Structure of BioF2-like acetyltransferase domain-containing protein:
Amino acid sequence: MPPSRWAAFAAEAAVPEQLVPYVRAVSDLEPLECGGFLALRSGPALVLVGHDAGLKQGGAEQERSRPEAARLDAAVGEASSLRGIESLTVLAPFRPDAAPEWAVSTRPDAYWGIPLPTDAADMAYGQKLRNQLRRARRDILIAREGWKPDHAELVEQYIRSRPFAPGTRHLFRHIGPYVEAVPDALLFAARDCEGALQGFAVGDYTALGTVFYLFAFRAPESPPGTADALLDALAAEGIRRGHTLLNLGLGINPGIVFFKRKWNATILRPHVETSWAVQRPQEAGLLGSLKKLFGM
């Protein structure tokens, strides 16, 4: 895929996986195009990003009825036929009809976000959030920074605190190279009066209209409201640049959804991840042998 197509997908990105500079900085995935959708390949594995401007707000069933859903099924067929592809994962608002019966889908989730006004003073904060921001600003100072050793150490502390999958650890450990390599990936750091790092957040401003809130880490004893103050700074930069939407990412769990709702976030688009082996898996045992014998 020529760089001009990378730029086009990134400019219109609806989900983080369409930010090609980000994907290339944190993984070995190579971008290509399938049926007008962005795809990301690593050896025999392919990820098809089935989100686009035509597949957005609304429930999964509403989106399934749209003409673009047929485009997605066609793209799935094209991706499955690529030479050397053994496994396929589709990221989309719904499970594609073209997925085989043995495909496995994740629990439905959704991307959340908030509209950005033209003036930061017009952000719609509830009183509780206003109070938290006011309190946090007494204890910390927010500023843009380049990647530093204490950022990396905070990430390592977080990795050690939870049993993350290898892929997640790899992603977190490549935040530094990503921030250094992508000009529109900005890091906002929160430091106390002594200069100690209390947290940081990373936003991606590559897309023309949407800011992506990608990473956020806090020190265990950070002042209350630190995460809110970091997100506020990230949003203010988006407003300054003329962005109109802040994508806060997936819901993932009730605690994360609570944080998003505190910011008056609403669901932008449903999201389901569906994966399968391109070739039907062999069934083991007597049942598999009988099916093979009788052509079932």
About this structure: The domain at 117-243 is CATH 3.40.630.30 (Aminopeptidase). DSSP finds eleven helices and twelve strands in the chain. The chain has two domains: 3-109+270-293, 117-243. The longest helix spans residues 226-241.
